[in-house]
Write a structure and sequence with these properties.
Elements (H helix, E strand, L loop, with lengths): L4 H19 L8 H11 L6 H13 L3 H22 L9 E2 L2 E2 L1 H5 L1 H19 L7 H4 L2 H12 L4 H10 L7 H11 L1 H14 L4 H28 L2 H4 L5 H5 L4 H5 L1 H17 L9 H12 L3
Antiparallel strand pairs: 1-2
């Protein structure tokens, strides 16, 4: 019987949205313009893929959902900050995100920059509160926070973004594309599956298997993004199709062609799914999510 992914995604998305609403319940002490700008992008829709992956990974390692939810919400705050900054004129200069006007088009560039700054710091404030976790989990929290900072920072997402910018209009190189993708997008997706495992104290072959899953699924996800930017529909994507080619971005299709890119997505997805064998039925959501990420159209 196929895994009921649609219902699972909806259920987990609702839980994540409830968690995010708790974070934004009280804006006292925050300038209203900043608060409105942050909320605009956090609640602009989206698949909530990173937090859902986090909750699915927690399920695989036996971590209660309530213990993983703070990590899940913090991942979404960091992801949202990165989108706000990516859309700025100095970077990708996009007018639309998720079918809506980008943050800087609504609130101005200065407020968009500050909203991203606010979301990033809020994410670490939210995830690092030891009182929010059961006592047995607190000893693992410093490793969780450190790894999140590592994957979100210059060794991961920010460093990948830098290389992405510096590679524009240059001759496509597959090794450079893979380096950018594994950091700019892949690092935070890898965090999504590793962090709940670290909080639960998971180690050895189980942590190695989740790491392999995150690396393969994360890279496949970004190659799918590259392909969709080439062949997708702007309305369905919620952003401008063909923008990567127009900017001379170093993408997988630019370096390897569309057909090779599609084959690579298939191989990576098979590897991701295959890496979860030792988890048995508990990893069914993760398997279904890997296939969903490979087959999505937006």
């Amino acid at each position: 019987m196929p895994f009921p992914l649609k219902a699972y995604l909806e259920q987990k998305r609702r839980g994540v949205d409830q968690g995010l609403r708790r974070i934004f319940r009280d804006g006292s002490g925050c300038p209203k313009a900043l608060w409105d700008s942050m909320k605009y992008s956090v609640f602009a829709g989206g698949k909530r893929l990173r937090p859902v992956l986090c909750l699915a990974s927690a399920e695989a390692v036996g971590l209660p959902e309530k213990d993983a939810l703070r990590i899940a919400c913090s991942l979404e705050l960091i992801h949202t900050y990165s989108l706000i900054h990516d859309d700025l004129p100095a970077l990708d200069n996009d007018d639309y995100r998720r079918g809506r006007r980008t943050n800087h088009k609504v609130f101005g560039e200065a407020m968009a920059i500050l909203a991203g700054d606010g979301l990033l710091t809020l994410a670490f404030e939210w995830v690092s509160d030891p009182e929010a976790y059961p006592r047995p989990r607190r000893g693992n929290l410093p490793r969780v926070v450190r790894e999140l900072a590592h994957h979100a920072g210059y060794p991961g997402m920010v460093g990948g973004q830098v290389d992405d910018v510096l590679s524009e209009r240059k001759k496509p190189s597959l090794s450079r594309v893979l380096s950018i993708h594994r950091r700019k997008t892949g690092a935070l997706l890898l965090s999504s599956v590793r962090l709940p495992a670290l909080l639960a104290g998971t180690a050895g072959p189980r942590l190695k298997a989740l790491t392999k899953y995150g690396q393969c699924a994360g890279l496949a996800f970004q190659i799918v993004d590259d392909v969709l930017n080439e062949v997708g529909d702007s309305k369905e994507l919620g952003k401008s199709a063909g923008s990567d080619r127009d900017r001379g971005k170093m993408t997988y299709p630019a370096a390897a062609g569309l057909e090779r890119s599609k084959r690579k997505i298939g191989r990576l997805t098979e590897e991701a799914v295959g890496s979860l064998a030792l988890f048995g039925p508990k990893a069914a959501p993760l398997r279904a999510l890997a296939e969903y990420m490979a087959e999505r159209t937006n």
